């Protein structure tokens, strides 16, 4: 089972998920990484779920068009949209030190823990 490390608010939150898991979907049903993952629309439209991939990024598929549209140059800095990722391998993510301009974007939906 993939092991997840999520850096958030200066702490590291750790959990295991089934293969092919979407972390935003899990948070939506109040399972790890709830309540520590910030997200919004769940559809690649708001970037509130933006994470910096610290380790395990090489296992992920290439960014889709929604990630390219929302993240632009930030993709080169390791940013991904958690709502667009189905996790199949161990991964370490951070929502600490997210670009403030990116974090401030959104569609008015806020479900930040
Ligand atoms: S939750 Fe809105 S883009 Fe991922």
UniProtKB/TrEMBL annotation:
Gene3D superfamilies: 3.10.20.30. Pfam families: Fer2. Signal peptide: none annotated. Residues 10-85 form the 2Fe-2S ferredoxin-type domain. This is 2Fe-2S iron-sulfur cluster binding domain-containing protein.
């Amino acid at each position: 089972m993939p092991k997840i490390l999520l850096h958030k608010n200066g702490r590291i939150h750790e959990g295991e998920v089934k293969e092919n898991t979407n972390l935003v979907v899990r948070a939506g049903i109040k399972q790890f990484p709830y309540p520590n993952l910030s997200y919004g629309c769940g559809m690649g439209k708001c970037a509130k779920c933006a994470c910096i991939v610290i380790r395990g990024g090489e296992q992920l598929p290439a960014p889709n068009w929604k990630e390219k549209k929302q993240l632009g140059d930030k993709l080169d800095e390791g940013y991904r949209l958690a709502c667009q990722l189905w996790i199949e391998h161990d991964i370490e993510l951070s929502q600490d030190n997210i670009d403030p301009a990116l974090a401030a974007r959104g569609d008015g939906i806020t479900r930040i823990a």
